[in-house]
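Support reply, case 0932

Customer input (verbatim):
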Amino acid sequence: MEDDPNDATLLAMEFRKCPAQIRLLTVGDGQQAMDFLDGLGAYSDRERYPLPDVILLDLKMPRINGFEFLEWLRGRSGRHLRLIPVVVMSSSGIKEDVDRAYALGANSYMVKPIEWRPFRERAKALGVYWSEHVEVPASRAA
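Our regenerated output:
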């Protein structure tokens, strides 16, 4: 759930280069992320908007921030959503943010590099890792 269109574009570019097919869907804020996962409104068509295998989460999203989203996902969302792995990708490397994200149920925390080359390398590694090396829970059933 990435609200920065530039970061989302860069991620999508790198994911397209991965050997396995990765479909990146983005939303603009935390409330849209919740609506997406709950299949509400425009997101009710699961053919067009399938549940994700992994969530890439920015902490600094408008309306509902990443911490609030994690609280909802891990504690108040439907049980079938709670197992979806969450990778926090934040510009913040502040220890308190890292600790809080893990305490709220993040599975991984990555600091987004500011410069293009390191960002690209992390995006590529993330794409390869999630597309080729990870087994995800069967979280698609309601």
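We compared this against your earlier run and they match. Two observations from our side: The chain has a mean pLDDT of 85. The helical segments are 5-16, 30-38, 66-75, 95-103, 116-133. Please reopen the case if you see a mismatch on your end.
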